[in-house]
Amino acid sequence: MDKLFFLAIPGLSLREFLLSFRIAKTYAYKMQTDKLVEVNGEYRDFSYILKPGDAVSIDIESFEIGTIETYDYPLAIIYEDEDILIVNKPQGMLVHSDGHDNKTLNNAVAYHYQQEGIKRRVRHCHRLDYETGGLLLYAKHFLAHAFLNDQIEKRSFKKKYYALVTGKMQPESGLIDLKIGRNRHLRNQYMVSHTGKESLTYYQTIKSNEKSSLLDIEIRTGRTHQIRVHFSHLHHPLIGDAIYGTPGQKLMLEAYYMSFIHPRTREIVEFFLPVPDDFWP
């Protein structure tokens, strides 16, 4: 048995409390029919109105079936609690397996869970490209995953990046509103296309010279290679971008910031990384 414990939100019915995590109604129905939820140690009908101080326990074991191979790798953990895990993903590492490589960040998280005695599925909430480093968020159970994914879909989950691009960026700040779609002629590449999906990229120049510009970037849409495609299209490709620019020692792109509403406290939380030392000459 694997139980989660929550302090109730007074005034909500037990059903409303569970659905506030944005889980599917079928999940709530299963929890009700299988009697997986208790209030103060006793089973209650889902119409029960929660009172101040009520403690809700949920048996999540049947929702957490599914394991992956573990990979003994030293995770750079930025933050962890009973609901979420945030790690600093290294460059040159896949988030999840491509069917061949199991030395991925997910496999490393599986190893961490194993060492901590956590028998849960590994659930990443978003992705970063193989070449991109920075903050990556994991949900440690299906309730947190549903709650966080809802924010991502509604674009209230905020992500920011540091990027070093070629040339002096003009104008120094702005919104790039250009649709992105697959490049039908080049495998695994994307391009600006009027038939593509909406893609919004906000940027602000931190510092610049004639050779390069260090940018603070926020994306509101999570298209594959979005930042790289947008700035390449504007003739300011990212330094080190072997696909859309000029190859270098590394891609100068770092996911440094995220903010979202925490699934337990229901308060906004923020996490930062400093500008990497090698991002400005």
Q: Any descriptors?
A:
Structural Genomics Hypothetical 15.5 Kd Protein In mrcA-pckA Intergenic Region, Chain A; four-stranded antiparallel β-sheet; 16 strands; alpha+beta; 281 residues; 3 domains
Break the fold down into its secondary structure elements and pairings.
Elements lengths: L2 E5 L6 H6 L5 H9 L3 E3 L2 E2 L11 E5 L17 E4 L3 E6 L15 H12 L6 E2 L8 E7 L2 H12 L4 E9 L6 E5 L2 E3 L7 E3 L7 E9 L3 E8 L6 H8 L19 E9 L6 E5 L9
Parallel strand pairs: 8-15
Antiparallel strand pairs: 1-4, 2-3, 2-4, 5-6, 6-8, 7-8, 9-14, 9-15, 10-13, 11-12, 13-14, 15-16
Tell me the number of strands: 16
Q: Tell me the number of helical segments per DSSP (H or I, 4 or more residues long).
A: 5
pLDDT under 50 segments (min length 5)? none
Number of domains: 3
Proportion of residues in β-strands: 25-35%
Please bin the fraction of helical residues.
Answer: 10-25%
End-to-end Cα distance = 54 Å
Taken in chain order, the helices and strands follow as EHHEEEEEHEEHEEEEEEHEE
- SSE-based structural type: alpha+beta
Radius of gyration: 21 Å
> How would you sum up the global shape?
elongated
Indicate the CATH architecture of the largest domain: 2-Layer Sandwich
Using the coordinates above, name the CATH class of the largest domain: Alpha Beta
Please give the largest β-sheet.
Answer: 10 strands, mixed
CATH topology of the largest domain: Pseudouridine synthase
Oligomer: single chain
Mean pLDDT: 95
- The CATH homologous superfamily of the largest domain is named Pseudouridine synthase
